[in-house]
Structure formats: C-alpha cells, structure tokens
Amino acid sequence: MSVLLSSAAAPTAVSTPFASSFNGTPLAPVDAPSSFSLALAALPPGVLMGFAIVIGLVIGSFLNVVVHRLPIMLERAWRADAAELFSDTPCSGDLLNDGLPARYNLWLPRSACPHCGHVLRAWENIPLVSWLLLRGRCSQCGTRVSLRYPAVEIASALCAAGALLAFGPSVKALAAFALSAALIAASMIDLEHHLLPDAITLPLVWAGLLVNLADTFTDLRSALIGAVAGYLVLWSVYWIFRLLRGVEGMGHGDFKLLAALGAWLGWAALPQIVVISAVAGAVVGLAATLSGRMRFEEPLPFGPYLAAGAFITLFAGTPLYRVFA
Ligand SMILES: [Zn+2]
User: Fold this and answer.
1) How far is the CA of 124 from the centre of ligand 1 (A)?
2) Residues whose beta carbons lie less than 5 angstroms from ion ligand 1
3) Where in the numbering of this chain does the Prepilin peptidase A24 N-terminal domain appear (predicted)?
4) What is the DSSP string of 215-253?
C-alpha cells in the first residue's frame, strides 16, 4: 500500500532561505507563489522570523484567554440550558448564579488576577515580557501566575517559527500555524478539563477541508476520506472498548479531533498520528500510574497525544513510514 500522501514532486514555490518541503517527504504539491508569498519573501529572513515569533507570542496570549474562558463560557451555556429545563423548580435560579459578570466572553471583561481581581494594565499584559518583568507574580497581591501562561505563549511562538521554517513565507505556513494554535488550545483545555470543545474541533474539520480545496497539505479527496476515517477509527475503538470491557476508553471529542486531523493532513497521515498518540499516551499513562499520580482505570485526556502526532506529521512529514518501509 502506498503511504505517501502525494506522489507529486513539486517545484519549490518561493526562493527563500527557508526550506519548503516536508523534510524530504512531500505531503502535498506546493502551490504557485502568490503575491502574498512574494511580498513576504522580499523581507530579510531575520525580520521575517522576528515577525513570526512576535505574532506567535501575541496569538499565544490570546490562546491563554481561550484556554481559561472557553470552558467557563461552555459551563455557563449548559447551566442556562439546565435552568430553562428546570425553570419550574426552586433551585433553577441558583444554576445561573456563578458570581461572574453577565457579559463574559473572550473579549470581556478585561483580564484580571483571579486571586485579588486586579485588572491588568497594558504593560502587564505583554506576552512573555510581562511575566518575566513581574517574575511570574501578580503586581498587586504577589500571587504566583501559573507557568502555563508563558509556556503556551512560547509553544505558540515555536509553532509560528516552525511553520515559517518548514513552509517558507506562504499561505501554507499561515495555515500550519492556525492548525497548531488550535491544537495548543484544545490540548490545554483537555489537560485541565478532560474536554475537547466542539467549538474548536468542529470548525477545525471544516477549516481543514477548505484549506485543502487548494491542495495545501493534501488533495481534497484525501482530506474528505481523512475526515470520515479519522472519526470512524476512534469511534470504533470506543465501541470495542465499551462492548468488551464496559468502559468508555475515550471521549467523543477525540473522534472529532482525529476527524479534523484527517481533514487537514489527509487519510494517509492517520496511521502515523494514531500510532504516535497511542504509544505516547501509553508511556505517559504507565509512568503516571507507576509513580502513583494516576489510578489505572482513570481516563487519560487523549487530545494532547493526538496533537503531538499531528505536530510531528505537520512539521516532519511521515518518518514512521520510512522506518517501516
Ligand atoms: Zn493579584
């Protein structure tokens, strides 16, 4: 069985110091240079890389807001639904009372210290820089600010730099960074809340199909089959586990996330993503169980491992296939 996502050896689109292949394994034909790519390619590589890192940090800062607020917004929506359902019972009013302002979304209210409520001033809200200047503490009450904030910003900046290095200044690099950013947010939410929100996974499926209308990472046929196959693979694993052992081995969000990865990277990327995520998940799960940090039956959030498989496939191609070929 051929495992190459695309057999077309494509010409390099833009002549830049950045490589625009998948480390020797082309996943898709590289499209003709657009005026956008040409305009960006005219900039010196150092400026371009600096630009990518700054954009990555800023988007990382936004991802922190998404990771913190999206689960709260979802819980609010569920509470509102429940309150409507139980509107004739005396406790329905309590369901809506969560102590947060009425208008709570990704933009409002302004970011504040969760401990003392101090609203962050502009200079306290600069990605990474503010955390370093304040030495990871709130300027008002001195409470430690989680390492998660700079970690997410750095991860996002690394993805932006990685996308530029791997694909050059192109629409493809922007798309790769958008996928990476969504995967970072989804993974962090899954780690903290054991939840992969539909608000991230479903738009990611449609976005993957749209991106590949122009054969960006793979052709549309492979993307479409990838979306369906990605969903069905984990859906089957879920039902096999459930019927044989009576346990739910994974959440429905995992099916949707693998469907999205199939839509972005094509069906042929799925075996590698599944193998990497299963092996990584098993190793981490075993280590956590042996060290007593997790019980054996406890479900492991699988999103971060699927994301790890996706990152390797996106930036390094399909090295596993070469090992087994
Ligand atoms: Zn504070």
Assistant:
1) 12
2) 113, 115-116, 118, 138, 140-141, 143
3) 54-165
4) TSSS-HHHHHHHHHHHHHHHHHHHHHHHHHHSS--S-HH
Question: Tokens in use for 72?
Answer: 């709260």
Between residues 23 and 242, which one has the greater pLDDT? 242
- In this structure, what are the phi and psi dihedrals at residue 167, rounded to the nearest 5 degrees? -120, 0
Rounded to the nearest whole angstrom, what is the distance from the C-alpha of residue 246 to the centroid of ligand 1?
A: 46
| Distance in Å, CA 138 to ligand 1 centroid | 5
Residue 244 CB neighbour total at 10 angstroms: 9
Ligand 1 centre and the CA of 111: distance in Å?
11
Domain ranges of the chain: 41-169, 196-325
Q: How many angstroms does the Cα of residue 49 sit away from the middle of ligand 1?
A: 34
pTM of the full structure: 0.84
pLDDT in tens, 61-80: 999 999 999 999 999 989 88
For residue 137, the CA-to-ligand 1 centroid distance in Å is: 8
The whole-number pLDDT of residue 93 equals 67
Distance from the Cα of residue 116 to its chain's centroid: 30
Distance of alpha carbon 260 from alpha carbon 250, whole angstroms: 16
Q: 55 C-alpha vs ligand 1 centroid, how far in Å?
A: 27
Name the residue with tokens 């990277």. 265
Separation between Cα atoms, residue 48 and residue 186, nearest integer Å:
27
The per-residue pLDDT of the chain, averaged, comes to 85
How many angstroms separate the alpha carbon of residue 117 from the centre of ligand 1? 6
* pLDDT higher than threshold 70 for residue 148: yes
pLDDT single digits (tens) 229-274: 999 999 998 888 888 887 777 788 999 999 999 999 999 999 999 9
Which amino acid, residue 169?
Answer: P
C-alpha 113 – ligand 1 centre gap (Å): 5
131 CA → ligand 1 middle, Å: 13
